[in-house]
Design goal:
Blueprint (H helix, E strand, L loop, with lengths): L22 H14 L1 E5 L2 E14 L15 H12 L5 H5 L12 H6 L14 H7 L18 H10 L10 E3 L15 E9 L3 E12 L4 H18 L3 E15 L3 H7 L9 E4 L14 E4 L14
Parallel strand pairs: 5-6
Antiparallel strand pairs: 1-2, 2-6, 3-4, 4-5, 7-8
Amino acid sequence: MLKNITKLNKYKDQDPENEYHEEYQYLNLIKELLQEGSLELGRNGNTFVGIGSAMHFSLANNKIPILTTKKTAWKTCLKELLWFVKGQTSNTILNEQNVHIWDGNSSREFLNSRNLHSYEPNDLGPIYGFQWRHFNAHYTNASADYNSQGIDQLKEIIEQLKDPKQRNSRRLIVSAWNPCQLDQMALPPCHVLFQFHVINTNKLVCTMYQRSVDEICGSPFNIASYSFLTHLIAKHCDLEAHEFIYYMGNCHIYETHIKEAEEQLTRNPYEFPTLEIVNKRENIDDYEVSDFKLHNYVHHPAIKVEMVV
């Protein structure tokens, strides 16, 4: 079906000297979706779809899988993650840090399309961070004080990871998917659940499930964000970051992103950078972007992609 829609480029073969680079998991998925994906009309346009995929990324020795076949805006990604960690829901806070990835989902027009007429623009409702830190608390607006309201899932996980008697639990799960409040969110969560695991006494593994994956625009951010999170939680709980495992449900490439996807497939990856977290804060809310130092991030040029809202 796909070959009748677009003439696919001849993709660059894997570099024989670097064929086991973990980034090829991502590149091979892109290639597979373009060649074999099912053309489906979704909520916001035509997509090439594949159902079910997984990627494994090592975090050992401070490695962090920030994709190299195009420049990834890792500071933007990190600012969003720390916004989640603090339980914040106002896009204004991100805008003040020159982060605009949520602008399309926080406009008056988009909020009205979700029947959220009472929200002020830039109020995103009880999305990711709210559920991580205040699960199912009554939501009023982005500026309200939710201290001690709802279930602080992240705090409970951290307390258990710090306790050698509890850190081997198979229940170290944080869920952003709250059916009771989906209609109050500007956008229902795509990455819906993550779980921490401790193996070999002190090695931290994170597994994450994402129901819907925009492979060109979103997935590079998701890989970086949850790898940052795993390194952060390991640092905060005196553990060693070991691995991030990424499970995906509906994997898709928008028809409007084909050209950019094909360009990325002509490139071979560089070695992943390493991450240094220079400060261990007393409270998980207190970490700042300046606490994170990225070393040796070598990458191909950026590929500009317009996010489909």
